[in-house]
């Protein structure tokens, strides 16, 4: 049995929509067999992920912890693969780590709609998506996410997304959730 320190975001699933809130450091006990299993099966080896996180830390030392962390990114990739998602949406891109992980899990004809307000942050994202060869799977939409979500609805994306990740602008989460409600397809 080992005690490990992990940063945990309290994860909330509502009707299939994956919502994160605050990140909290916790100590947890885990037996060696489980730990070995997580590292053997859960970690996806992709040096490009480490490179993106390293450049983010270098350019934005103050803001780098906005990135989804490495193990959560691998979880996203595994989740996308395991639910066989083809169409994803993310609110909050920053330098593109979670979008990169989602896109790596998508099939070649899959699409991840990535919404952010910042041209500056997402210029780093674009660079790494291209380097990873997943840029054709990501549609970056720049602008306030609420406007972009409403536009997507009006453009006919009703009930068509398999996965959504809310990771920006927390005061608007409820508004995002309500707008996502009509474009996520609920599978029973
Ligand atoms: C927590 S970071 C996203 C982290 C990203 N998911 C990752 O794993 O690296 C939050 C992002 O939300 C963006 N943002 C803040 N307010 C926004 C808004 N109203 N609409 C769209 N994006 C917004 C910021 O520019 C920032 O890049």
UniProtKB/TrEMBL annotation:
InterPro entries: Cation-dep_OMT (IPR050362), SAM-dependent_MTases_sf (IPR029063), SAM_O-MeTrfase (IPR002935). Pfam families: Methyltransf_3. GO terms for molecular function: O-methyltransferase activity; S-adenosylmethionine-dependent methyltransferase activity. SUPFAM superfamilies: S-adenosyl-L-methionine-dependent methyltransferases (SSF53335). Gene3D superfamilies: Vaccinia Virus protein VP39. One of its GO terms (biological process) is methylation. This is Caffeoyl-CoA O-methyltransferase. It comes from Blepharisma stoltei. The lineage of its organism: Eukaryota, Sar, Alveolata, Ciliophora, Postciliodesmatophora.
């Amino acid at each position: 049995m080992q005690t490990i320190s992990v940063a945990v975001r309290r994860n909330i699933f509502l009707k299939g929509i994956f919502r994160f809130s605050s990140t909290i450091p916790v100590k947890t006990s885990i037996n060696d067999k489980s730990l070995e299993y997580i590292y053997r099966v859960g970690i996806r080896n992709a040096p490009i992920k480490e490179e993106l996180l390293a450049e983010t830390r270098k350019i934005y030392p103050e803001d780098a912890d906005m990135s989804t962390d490495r193990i959560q990114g691998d979880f996203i990739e595994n989740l996308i693969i395991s639910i066989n998602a083809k169409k994803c949406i993310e609110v909050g891109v920053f330098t593109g780590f979670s979008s990169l992980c989602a896109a790596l899990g998508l099939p070649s004809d899959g699409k991840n709609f990535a919404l952010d307000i910042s041209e500056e942050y997402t210029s780093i994202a674009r660079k790494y998506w291209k380097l990873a060869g997943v840029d054709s799977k990501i549609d970056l939409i720049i602008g306030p996410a609420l406007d972009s979500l409403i536009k997507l609805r009006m453009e006919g994306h009703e009930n068509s997304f398999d996965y959504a990740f809310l990771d920006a602008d927390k005061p608007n989460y409820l508004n995002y959730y309500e707008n996502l409600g009509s474009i996520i397809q609920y599978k029973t």
